[in-house]
Amino acid sequence: MTSQDGEEKSPDVPADTLAFQDPNDAESIHDTTRLELWSYYLYSVGFNFGPSQFQNLIALACGDDGCVLPYLGRKRDVNSIVLVTNGLSFAIQAVLLLLIGAWADYGRWRPNITIFFTFLAVAVSFAWLGVDDPTNWRAGIALYILGLITYQCSLTFWTAAFPGLVRDLPEVKQSLVEVKEGKKDLEAHTKFTSLSRNRVSNIAFTVQSVGEVIILAIMVGILRGLKSDESTENNTKAFSVLIAFAGGVWLLVALPWFFLEKRRPGLKLPPSTSLLTVGFKQTYVALRECLRLKQTFLYLVFYFLMGDVLNTTVTVVGTLQNSLVSYSTLQLTLLLIVGIVAQAIGIYGFWLVQKRFGISTKAMLTFNAIWIIVLTIWGLIGVHTDKFGFKHVWEVWAYQVFYGVMVCPWYAYSQTMISEVGKTSAFIGPFVSSAIITDSNNNNNMPFAFLFALGVFSMIFLWMVDVPKSRVECEEFITAESKRKAFETSGHLASAYTGDPDAKMANV
């Protein structure tokens, strides 16, 4: 599902091995069927115009006072309000997922939590039907924050199913059998599993893109029926109708996953730990051992920083785009059709290239990251000129194509590399960017300077990651933690990566 503002792990990424595997899962009784896999793909098909309606309401409420509103103790322009609100919502997510994010790893709670947050997010979508007047902009802020939190929490627990889903693919299970029988070496199995994970992730995002194009095409018909382009009032009401429609579609395509997902067992809770405290214990162990997991730590620093750069850049560009097209629901819908078609081409094209040439996930992600930095340079040019830098309508059309083809594959490879921790990483950039806008006399391009510098800095950490070494580090870490009984296991310890006690990445 895509937001108007714009992740599970792979064997090439040390973050994958942060999850402790119960040996009972090594001989999983579940096979991932084609129906289950396609229900997983369909879950993410949907669209949310909440960010655009939120910004539209604020812009209409500004009046003639220099287009600023009192918000959180200061007078701020539209872009600054949007960025601060984004930062608040992601900060709340960080706290919430610290408390309940670990539940994705334990027992059988995860599917139920996915269902709960999905229904809550859909309810928020329908609530927008009652918020279609500029005087309700404060209610719009509340719905916007609730929408972001419930949507991201839904995706966090949905993506947490990804490793088990791929590990139970019949071809991946057969590959592991061949390793245990001595017919295939472990390195060949890791490469095969890596491609399998990337295949599932890239197909999921391609299906999402195709589905969203269909939804947006239907939305164009809805907008024609509502005569959204005839008046500001019609346009504002149309935003709320589109949000509710998208919520209904999301619920419809999510239902198969609720019924077809296999209830794969998770870990047992550690001794003297409850569901309310296990997240804090996981965080404590991770912080305590971060120096032993040097490669993992380097990667996570890169991921958090670059994720912040991308999410904030997309938010800033989105606010500029909305303003350039005067919040026209029709224009935004047409722009998104172009963007999502480009996204489908980009994601599937990147996958075909990776498959053809056997390129590693780290290399593909590095290539994506370079284009994210190029995007910040594009915006940075507009700080001192009106000729370029998201200052013209033609630029946002070009942006949709560029972003879809060159940048959107990041989301597919990010899902392969890391899941729930990535959803909490986007609250630093919005706060800093909002402060920059406010302190630069509302120059909405100034945040790109900060985002460019942060993006370049983050690349240093990715360059330093040694992937093969990271696998050994994580196997040694899990063995040591098992002896300390930091996390409960049964029988003998399974591999951090393969999930099997007899096929480990290192002799530990």
UniProtKB/TrEMBL annotation:
**Disordered: annotated segments:** 1-20
A Pfam family reported for this protein in Swiss-Prot or TrEMBL: ATG22
**Which UniProt key words apply to this protein?**
Amino-acid transport, Autophagy, Membrane, Transmembrane, Transmembrane helix, Transport, Vacuole
One GO biological process term is: amino acid transport
- Coiled coil stretches, renumbered: none
Gene3D superfamilies assigned: MFS general substrate transporter like domains (1.20.1250.20)
Q: Is the keyword Transmembrane in the record? A: yes
Q: Which InterPro entries match?
A: Atg22-like, ATG22/LtaA_families, MFS_trans_sf
List, alphabetically, the GO terms of the cellular component aspect. vacuolar membrane
> Where's it found, cell-wise?
Vacuole membrane
The residues that cross the membrane are 81-101, 113-131, 203-226, 238-260, 297-320, 332-353, 365-384, 396-413, 448-465
Please name the SUPFAM superfamilies in this protein's record.
MFS general substrate transporter
Q: Where is the composition biased (Basic and acidic residues)?
A: 1-11
Bilayer topology reads: Multi-pass membrane protein
Q: Could you tell me what this protein does?
A: Vacuolar effluxer which mediate the efflux of amino acids resulting from autophagic degradation. The release of autophagic amino acids allows the maintenance of protein synthesis and viability during nitrogen starvation.
Question: Family per UniProt?
Answer: Belongs to the ATG22 family.
Annotated protein name in UniProt = Autophagy-related protein
Species this protein is from = Collybiopsis luxurians FD-317 M1
Its taxonomic placement starts with: Eukaryota, Fungi, Dikarya, Basidiomycota, Agaricomycotina
